[in-house]
Recover the amino acids of this structure.
């Protein structure tokens, strides 16, 4: 008789893999390491995630869900003012990069490890970046200014700079300056 997996097994495996992928990098983590760390059997892991690509895709989908929820909270707190929303999004990212455990954006990290890939994880990562850029573009357009495209480019570069400052000794200062810079740009 086949054994039935305990409730929450898939989530436990995914949480373990997510922690390993985020802290060590996707390329560095093998499926055997996930099996050992999750305390599950090979058949159980592959029953839920038939390939490493499937597991990485689930990790990035989970990361996207979390990032989208954080962005919705930031936008909700900003109200209907697009300038306040752009500042709030930047401040949310600034708060994230200040965290000691922050090791960069999961999507940017994946694409840095696998720049030429076009598998499901790469498509998820690229879609996230495209969608978040579109969000910045939309909010900037709602400001109704003549320099919409250039302003959106500037704000996006500030966001990219925040992520690039991950782990830098002056990351807290950079985060503060980034938020102030966006405030100046939208006012």
């Amino acid at each position: 008789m086949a054994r039935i997996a305990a409730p929450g097994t898939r989530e436990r495996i995914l949480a373990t893999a997510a922690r390993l992928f985020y802290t060590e990098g996707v390329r560095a983590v093998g499926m055997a390491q996930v099996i050992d760390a999750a305390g599950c059997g090979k058949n159980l892991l592959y029953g839920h995630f038939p390939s490493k690509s499937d597991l990485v895709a689930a990790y990035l989908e989970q990361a996207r869900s979390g990032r989208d929820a954080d962005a919705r909270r930031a936008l909700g707190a900003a109200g209907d003012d697009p300038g306040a929303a752009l500042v709030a999004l930047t401040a949310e990212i600034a708060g994230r990069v200040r965290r000691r455990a922050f090791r960069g954006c999961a999507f940017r990290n994946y694409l840095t490890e696998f720049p030429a890939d076009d598998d499901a994880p790469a498509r998820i990562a690229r879609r996230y970046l495209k969608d978040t850029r579109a969000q910045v573009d939309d909010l900037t357009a709602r400001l109704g200014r003549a320099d919409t495209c250039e302003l959106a480019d500037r704000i996006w570069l500030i966001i990219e700079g925040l992520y690039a400052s991950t782990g830098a000794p002056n990351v807290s200062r950079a985060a503060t300056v980034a938020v102030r810079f966006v405030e100046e740009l939208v006012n």
In short: The chain has two domains: 1-50, 53-186. The chain is about 75% helix and 0% strand.
